[in-house]
Structures are given as C-alpha cells and as structure tokens.
Amino acid sequence: MYDFTYHRASGVADAIGKVNAAAEGLFLAGGHTLLPTLKLRLARPSDLIDLQDIGDLRGISVSGDGVTVKAMTTHATVAGSKEARAAIPALANLAGGIGDPHVRARGTIGGSISNNDPAADYPAAVVGLGATVKTDKREIAGDDFFTGMFETALDDGELVTEVSFPRADRAAYYKFKNPASRFAIVGVFVARTGGGVRVAVTGAGPCVFRVGEMEEALAADFSSDAIKDIQIPEDGLNSDIHAQADYRAHLVNVCARRAVDAC
Length: 263
Known about the structure:
Blueprint (H helix, E strand, L loop, with lengths): L4 E4 L3 H10 L3 E4 L5 H6 L7 E4 L9 E3 L3 E5 L4 H6 L1 H6 L1 H8 L4 H6 L2 H7 L6 H7 L3 E4 L3 E3 H4 E3 L2 E2 L7 E7 L3 E8 L6 E10 L2 E7 L6 E2 L1 H9 L24 H18 L1
C-alpha cells in the first residue's frame, strides 16, 4: 500500500471540500473494494476521505412513492428494515443476499453503485426499478448512471447522497451466485411498475443492462412462459474462470424466468 493522507469528514460539504483540495482524493465508504485495491497497489490516491461519521448519509425513508436509501446505509440495514421490506420486498431480499454477514454489515449502497462492479447486485435494482440516484450536485436516472465496467456518470469529486426506488406492483430478483464470493455470475431483477415492465441483468456483461425483448413479452403476458424461448446473444458477455459467455447467456433466461415466478 502506498502512503496517503487519511481524513474523517464531518459532513457532506466537508467531504466535498477535502476531496477537491486533494491532488488525487478518493471517498471511502465501506471499503470492501477500495482497501484491497490499495493493498495490491493498484491505486495510489493522495488522500482518503472517510464518510463514516456523516450521519446525514445514513437512513431509510419510506413514502407512498417508494423507498429512499441514504448512501452510507449498509446492506444489512436495508435487508433488516421492516418498512423497506413492506414497501419493496424485492429490494430488501436483494440486500440480504449480498456477500456474507461481514460484507452486509460494512458495505453501503452508495459505495456499491459508485464502484459499479459488473457482478454487483444493487445495479440491477437501480435499473430494474428505474431508481433515481441523487448526488451533491444533481439527480441521475438509474438508466443513465452506469456507463461501463467500473464506470459511472459521476464526475470527479461528485458524491452519491441517496437513491430513491419507486414502488413496484410486482418485483423480484434472482441470481445464480458464485458460491465463494456470492457475487452474481448472473442476476436478473424483474419489475412491473406504473411505467411498464423492466428486466435488468447484472453479472452477465461488463455493466448492468436491460433486455427489451423480455420487457415487451412480459408487458403483454407477465408469466415465465412468455419469455422461455427468448435467447440472449452471447456476444459481448463476460467469459472467465467462473462461466463462459454462452453459459451466462443461458443463465439470463433461467434467472429471468425464476424472478418472474417469484414476483
């Protein structure tokens, strides 16, 4: 690990000020990706700005419109929230399946979506529910937030403050998980809302994506039979030691059907 200067921010404005004043500053949320990256010397920030003390970035609020989760809220908190589970059960279930108890106790929604690991679970919920990501500067539609592998629409020094998820008439998330890490080899979030049907896939490609053909079929007939014959092209999908592209393409259909059945 290279040397860096460590800061504990007292508030959002303080965090923004510290990261902007640094030569190469980074925010530290749960640290599950950033700290191993630093240990392997794959990153060399001049400053780390720890967000742990910012109480305004923690908490869940539920309204008639949906659920808003502050950026430093842990996965365990979302999974254990009776209010969030009552409003959007699929969101709480997804959070409860992230990693292991240690990961869920420290990992945060803001850190997860800002890192945008291609196998992370939360991006599927953000896109699948058509959520809105709020930062210190603006609001970003979920469809526009994730731009590529480990890439988002965030500008340098921009901080996610909360994510707002609209309620769904029916929604579920199903993933085929890596047995060791519990990352999604393929995960599919299916939701039917007032705005239509959404099918969001994580783990299969470099970045979360939607499957328009499945969305159209489910809009006409919300049943797993309606999508059973839809094939996902393997071109551009991930291939690694865990699964080849053709297997991931097959899993998208399997996971989507199981998610529909779970709605």
